[in-house]
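Example record for the data management plan.
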Amino acid sequence: MDNGSMNETPDDPGKAGDSLFVAKFFTREEMMATISLPYGTLCGGSSKELKDLETNGDSSKEGLTDAIYRDCMRYIRATQAGNSGYEWYHDFIAFTNLQTVVYNNGQILKLGEDLDGLLEYTMTHMRNLRSSVARNALMFASCVIEAVSHDPNMLLTVSLKLMPQLFKCCMSEKIVYRRPAVDNLVDICKHCRGKEYIDVAWVLMIHACDRNAKVCVTAGMCLRLFFDNLSDDDLMEIDRTQFAEKVEPCLGSRDASIKEICAKLLNRYIGLMPPDDIKLWWSELNPRFKITKLLKPYVVVESPSVESIDESLMTTPNEAHLSTPDEAMMQSPDESMMQTPLGSPVGSVDGITEGTPYETLEGTMVEPALAQEINASTGEMTVANGTVSTSTTQLVTMESGDNTVAASTGEMDNASDSVATKE
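Corresponding structural encoding:
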């Protein structure tokens, strides 16, 4: 981040000694050119000059920066303990001196209690009502991010610690808070390249669903940058279940750009998966998830394979075997009735075919060849193997060879009451 070199009069000017305190910002180049303390030390003695620092006889760059760092940490612990003997500008001086230390000796930052306390102190003042202090705190945060970028563990620790507070600064209407915070978040995503930083992406997705539009826009920009820097191999090593849980809320974000970013990310993720893995993942997801619906077009549902089909199942009604009159005569009545549909025999004359059965009013099947005699008055028909009773009131008879066939007609549909007889 370009710090700029300028003077700024605080909102409510304070006094350092008998003079008016002027907040001045320094660039990285100015701080690295020579180790100097424009405002002196904080707890280094009555004169508060660099020469009075306890360097233990080490006047090298490392010795000087170590002495300044210890001086700043003593001040931070005192303020955290509730010591009220300091003014607001002492915080500004602390961040200026800390930048001098870290720019000249970044290795001085190590994981541990000191780093945790330093980060807590920095986050507290990122939104300081004194804009000059807040800006200096954000400039120091940028300095720390750059200094730990070579160490994955430290970079991840620092990033996860600072990100929530940086997003809060993005909500501010004052650009003095918002612009440096956005720059720091972008710097974090530029340095976080690899699957070991995936927790940074999850924090971004949480803020991508924030109700504040400024936060959503910033989170979306950082999300795009993070995954653009992530290789396909690293992307495929992300746990599918965790990926779905984090992406799902973003697909319902109020910001259309967030939905678009996450949909493209999902398509990229699916495009790298084998079809079988896609189907398995789809089956494991909650059916109500939006991600499940987006996965569905990629799932190939196989239709059941039939290797052998019974030929009888393939036969259509039109292809059914129809018996000839001679074959029907040679079959038993039951077999004939099963093959020939009632009421629609082939080659029928007036609905009756010689050698085929027909149905009486009572539903009894009668073979014409078996009929011997019909008594029209009693309704009895004598056949070779028994007597079949009918309840006809009117009969239509038809001679067929030597046999006389009687069919029950009931009442005729036409108006005629006479009995029609074929001579």
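Summary line stored alongside the record: The mean pLDDT is 75.
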